[in-house]
């Protein structure tokens, strides 16, 4: 048993952590990280990973780093870094002083690469990307060894140093790990570690023209930060042998990679590449368009961070892929807002109602409860007057007994207002209803009477003279 008491239900990752705590593999430390690539805005899938990594650190009294995996300058931008920082904070997580950038480790990664070359475990490759692919073989056939594979350590070191100095063009050479071209795991068939890319990096500028590949960089980032549990999505399961191989060859601190099933939501695109296309080709008005599944889009759409965190808890973590129904996310939001949101009245498609027996010029302040679920939310005053707006769809000229809303001769309740009865319907030349005339019952102030009268329908409304215009977004 660990000496902390987890507040969350257990899952397979906690079981692994508990085992490590028991065996002492990481000296009882729990140190996770959330490692976004700053090549887009965070989406609801990232939220699952954020809640998992920060949540585990919280529960085990550990630490969670926010680390930008900024190893590909051709796609990364400061705007994305800023948005990610904002969104993780908004979700309610705090990395304290543990904010890191993979680019800060470029020099150290470079030195590690030289070390591998010196060990005879890496070589400079002259084959083109296409040739490398064709030499790689398939799941059924082993790969072919490249002629570059037999280069001497000295030659490899010389070429790699010249790659770094900028002597070669983009794509003309790469550095590869020397592992096993016939491994059943294609990731182990001499994967590329560095490529040449003469591109300006948002943080390191033009200091580098070679950039590390994900598999090479990621384990080193974890190792340098002394991460204990490197949690990633299932696609990386086949990469774990490579993650382990690099760290073993270098004989450096070695975290445990653990894979979990990514969040899939029905009707929801979560590939950053596709979301970028929606933005760039202007199908949406930016990354924070309320129709986007990004955290900034969900925020504009009215989602609360509490609901998103609760959603992450509800879906849990598993080892097999599945698809979650979007309705669960909406349900979780509704549960949260129901407890917290202040109720207001607004009319979207107004129909004017004139209350003929209500004194002209009179305005009464009606008392309205702000949230029936939460007494501490208090009450507010809303003005009631002779002319009000109701929702056009709350009135029908012809309706059967099941219609509880307004119709001619029928009494309904105006929420926090009075009972009214419709007496007359006014139409324009085209037959369109322009206004209704009603009478009110002065004995029903506040929307109720004590005479046992049954009034089923309750309508929302606004006082016409006091109403303000609003932009309402419907989804
Ligand atoms: P995409 O495939 O959309 O480009 P990504 O995984 O490449 O996303 P990163 O910025 O690398 O994006 O992701 C940062 C972290 O978020 C990673 O640890 C990744 O595993 C996690 N993550 C991304 N998408 C999901 C998802 N749908 N569910 C859970 N975790 C996710
Ligand atoms: Mg990624």
Blueprint (SSEs and pairs):
Layout: H1 12-23, E1 31-34, H2 44-59, E2 63-68, H3 78-91, E3 99-101, H4 106-118, E4 122-125, H5 129-135, H6 153-165, E5 174-177, E6 192-196, E7 210-212, H7 214-224, E8 229-233, H8 240-250, E9 256-260, E10 264-265, H9 272-280, H10 295-300, H11 305-315, E11 323-324, H12 326-340, E12 350-355, E13 364-369, E14 379-384, E15 387-391, E16 411-414, E17 419-427, E18 433-440, E19 458-459, E20 461-463
Parallel strand pairs: 1-2, 2-3, 8-9, 10-11, 12-18, 16-19
Antiparallel strand pairs: 4-5, 5-6, 6-7, 12-15, 13-14, 15-20, 16-17, 17-18
Helix pairs in contact: 2-11, 7-8, 11-12
What does this structure look like?
By secondary structure, this protein is an alpha/beta fold. It folds into 3 domains: about 1-95 and about 215-340, HUPs (Rossmann fold); about 100-210, Glutamyl-tRNA Synthetase, domain 3 (Alpha-Beta Complex); about 350-465, Beta Barrel (Ribosomal Protein L25, Chain P), CATH 2.40.240.10. The protein is built from 12 helices and 20 strands. The chain has a 7-stranded mixed β-sheet, with no helix packed on it. Strand 1 (about 30-35), helix 2 and strand 2 (about 65-70) form a beta-alpha-beta unit. Helix 2 (about 45-60) crosses helix 11 and helix 11 (about 305-315) crosses helix 12 (about 325-340). The model has no long low-confidence stretch (mean pLDDT about 95). Adenosine-5'-triphosphate binds near residues 46 and 270.
